[in-house]
Amino acid sequence: MYEYNQVSNEWRVIPQSNTFTKSFAKTPAIKDSIQDIVYIYGVATDYHMYVYNLMTNSWNFSTAVAPYHLDLYSAVELNGEILYIGGVDQPMDKVIIPL
User: Fold this and answer.
1) Rounded mean pLDDT of 54-59?
2) Domain ranges of the chain
3) What backbone phi and psi angles, to 5 degrees, belong to 5?
4) Could you tell me if 73 and 84 are in contact, meaning their C-beta atoms sit under 8 angstroms apart?
5) Do β-strands 74-78 and 81-85 pair in parallel, antiparallel, or remain unpaired?
6) Is 82 helix (H, G, I), strand (E, B) or coil?
7) How far from the centroid of its chain's Cα atoms is residue 78's Cα?
8) What is the pLDDT of residue 97?
9) Residue 45: helix, strand or coil by DSSP?
């Protein structure tokens, strides 16, 4: 995990209490700007929600598996909810099209 400082235009490594063996390179990260929390969900997390608190530098892992196994999606946080846009439901091989 890295932190970018806009003032100094530099990146720094953030010490981690957890070591991950998976890459989150293709997994969208959704930031809640009010609570300084980052949400990560997708194939890299085995479809569990990973929650990173920027203030405490700590992770929280959901034990519940999401009902949809989305991949190749975009996501945003809006009014306290995470909205997933597009994507493919992996087990069903269906494209999700929001109406």
Assistant:
1) 85
2) 28-99
3) -100, 115
4) yes
5) antiparallel
6) strand
7) 15
8) 54
9) helix
Beta strands of 1-99 (E only): which ranges? 2-5, 10-13, 29-32, 37-40, 50-53, 58-61, 70-71, 74-78, 81-85, 88-89, 94-95
Predicted model pTM = 0.69
Q: Which two tokens stand for residue 93?
A: 């091989």
β-strand partners of 39: 30, 51
Q: Which amino acid is at 14?
A: I
pLDDT digits (tens, 9 = 90+) for 8-42: 999 988 777 666 667 777 788 888 878 888 888 88
DSSP-assigned states of every residue in 33-44: TTTTEEEE-SGG
Which amino acid is residue 8, in one-letter code?
S
Alpha carbons 20 and 40: distance in angstroms, whole number: 13
